[in-house]
Task: structure prediction
Amino acid sequence: MYLFVQPGRTRSWIQRLLIRGRRRELGLGSVALVPLAEAREKALANRKLARQGGDPLAEKRRAEGIPTFTDAWRVLEQKRAGWRGPRHSQEWISSLRRFAFPRIGKVPVSEVTSADLLEILTPLWHRKVATAKRVRQRLRAVLEWAVAMEYRIDNPCDRIGPVPGPQQDVTEHMQAVPHREAARVIRRVRASAALPAAKLALEFLVLTAARWGEVRWAEWKEIDRSGRVWTVPARRAKTNRRQQVPLCDRALEILDAAEALEGEAGPLVFTHGGGKPFHDSVLRRLLRDLGVAAVPHGFRSTFRDWAGEETTIPRCSVYCVPEISPKVL
Result:
């Protein structure tokens, strides 16, 4: 232990200590507030804790103020850069607000127990399997951050193990229409009172067998009309690989119509005016309002069925061969 005198004559007690094989310095307080005898007592307590394998620095950090679980979800900020868009972060925090915060939001992260986590997860475990898995993953991420910050020494998610029991994870396929009904659905969409750009976007989605997120954020610079190809960049593709989507004659006509609606209002192909992107649920609402028992993503299944029954193209290449662009419409 030694006395550290700063240039402004401020003096404080400092202890040098070997903690888990690393030489560290611990502040014991100002001379004006901590007498020598008290500083020696603190230094002795730190030495004893270090010899027992503890970490006086971590203990001091915990004593100075441990964040609550609500505060600790700041881990989200560290993960955000690796996510594709704002929707992921919104889902991340909304699930915690709905299921975790009411139970452990005000609890310090050091005090969260496996019993707390079981109380959160048990009502979801068998009733909402996918939601339970996502919530558990996010709980674990927050508590792993707490471990890394030395607010606690373990992650209670690791102790849950098989306690909730096996989940009956039944795969639920997206609602889709038979491929022989696709043309009828598109005719109903064309005749509807929906926004012209929304109707074009849905038909383009069906013809390209693309995901709505890919169509929704499609940009003009990605379209090669002479080559009849739409190149989806890796950052927007689910596979994290650039995808080249063939464009049939009708798809090119849709692009011409979309351009006539918006002109050069912005980089996006399909918007609801002024270059503004569509809301994520616009196509789902359109189909629901028309009484169509399907979701936008289900048309990928429709396309797959058509390719399997009406073409001889191998399953692995059905989305990348221009010659088999769907002619069912």
Strands lie at 2-5, 11-19, 22-30, 223-224, 229-232, 243-246. The two ends are 83 Å apart (CA to CA).
